[in-house]
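Look over both lines:
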Amino acid sequence: MNKLLPSVFLALLLSACASDPAPSEQLRLTAAALQQARAIGATDEIAELALAEAKLSEARLAMAEGDHRQARLLAEQAELDARLAEARVLSQKSSAQLAELRRSIERVREKLGKVQ
């Protein structure tokens, strides 16, 4: 039994070191997140979008080199950066809409003040 234990341990160790599967689906999700961020108005002026694109390029390079683990990590980071860029754009748009709404309310108040 004691002689079998090192063999089992070695087999487990080798299986743990097996290469990660290709992160094709993650790369697709990341590309979709970038496309969605651009569709709502994100531009390269938003740092997170530029960072996401750079990480996606690095992920594709890692994938081509066969480093699937690194490709997956970079693709996941790029997806999160793209989603953050999207959130920033939506926040900016919401702030602009809120400011416009406040201006409209102020104009209505001024008109009502003139009527009374």
User: Anything to note?
Assistant: The mean pLDDT is 88.
